[in-house]
Amino acid sequence: MYEHFYGFKKKPFQLLPNADFLFRSKKHDIALTYLEYGIYERAGFIVITGEVGTGKTTLINYLLRTLKQDLSIIYLSQTCLNPEEFLRILCQESSLPHEGKGKSEMIELFGRFLVEQFQKGRYAILILDEAQNLPLETLEEIRMLSNLDAGNETLLQIILVGQSTLRDKLRWEGLRQLAQRVEINYHLELLDQDETRNYIRHRIEKAEGPGPDLFDGEAIEEIYNYSKGIPRLINAVCHMCLVYGMADELKKIDRALVVNVLKDRSQWDLLPVDQESSEREVPRPLPLFQDTVKIEGILRDLDSKLGLFVGIAESSRVALEKVVSRLPERGIQKESINLKEAEAALKKQWDVFLRRLGRIEEILAIGVENQKQLISLLSLQRSRVPEKKREGGVSLKVSLAVGAGVVILLGLIILQFFINVDLYAFWAKLIGNIRFF
């Protein structure tokens, strides 16, 4: 698009995590040093965090390209997985025959794989990008995998890369055993204004552009004020500035153009221009993950059941609409059947069905609200139970009892509205006695 106009040989401000364009600021160099040191020293757990768009994935891609050791690297970026799904993906990425195997079998299979790699002189590294999305029970499964060793040697190194919320998650009481095993922990900070200027010039140089002064000083200052030094936002704004600049045939990007871009961007952007005024999510204290995992499982099951019933209701509604639409507007006699009477009967049944559908939707809303209330109650209950009783499992029993009660109660309510409605028999009788033209 604008590459030819400005003389670029590559796109300078792509959002993809391209290792060729890594800007090695002082902060990124420190992160790389920690990662390299941790890998060569066989640190068990390494944690790298940073705000959204700070270049964590680009950093990892650069690291993987520059590592010189003979390593067996498993890289996962789809991390919203329960323990069994995680183990299956792990075996799949390791080319292990895992089909039809249970959880314990997959752990044993992966353990043998690690031993074989170690015997060949190859060290195994598991890199989990977007690790803030890992469920608590999966993080615990990962901790258990780190127990696999060969005497004094670690068989599996684990690098967790994620947003700032990953740090908050690792501080939860239920994950203290994992947190204690983290040997290296670094948080990637945002770029300052000077680094932002150097970052933009670096990208232009890497793309073999016209020169480092394509963006003047005031334009860069305006871009920094908007982006707060987040590389991804810098890329997005610079890209649009070059598009606007090409349209206006400007060979230099000045402050006026940047202001114009940001003004237009604010009309369709999902992010506020003044990011300091945007509210940051405050992590809520949660109960120990053992309780949370089981309760989340109950609530997910409840969600799926309610969703199924609403889906059935919706499909039935569509089917009824089609039947009603085919009935004639005026009743006529055909084979001793009065179609007008049949139409009235069908519409009566239709009204009954709509009332039940409305009730099901109300139940779904109640179920969602119950989820929120249940988690809040569990958090409150956890904070009020003495530490010794928590360890004894008192709160877990209460949690499971409440969760099971919600599922049973809502299930009975839903069945109450469906068990007495035999729509299939009604349709069969009606359609069997009426011939449509």
Quick description:
The chain contains 17 helices and 9 strands.
Q: What spatial order of strands do you see in the largest sheet?
A: 2-3-6-1-7
- Count of alpha/pi helices: 17
Stretches with pLDDT under 50, minimum 5 residues: 273-291, 331-336, 387-395, 417-437
User: What can be said about the biggest beta sheet?
Assistant: 5 strands, parallel
Distance between the termini: 59 Å
What sequence of helices (H) and strands (E) makes up the elements?
A: HHEHEHHEHEEEHHEHHHHHEEHHHH
Alpha-beta classification:
alpha/beta
The Rg value, from CA coordinates, equals 30 Å
- Our estimate of the beta-strand percent is 5-15%
Helix content: 55-70%
State the total count of DSSP E strands. 9
Gross morphology = flat
Mean pLDDT: 76
Overview of the structural elements:
This protein is of the alpha/beta class and 437 residues long. The protein has 17 helices and nine strands. The protein has helices at 3-6, 26-40, 56-66, 83-93, 103-119, 136-145, 164-170, 176-179, 193-206, 217-227, 231-247, 255-268, 289-325, 339-384, 387-391, 394-418, 423-433, and strands at residues 45-50, 71-76, 123-128, 149-150, 153-154, 156-162, 182-188, 333-334, 337-338. The strands form three sheets. Strands 2-3-6-1-7 form a five-stranded parallel β-sheet, with helices on both faces. Helix 13 runs antiparallel to helix 14 (339-384) and helix 14 (339-384) runs antiparallel to helix 16. The model is unreliable at 273-291, 331-336, 387-395 and 417-437 (pLDDT under 50).
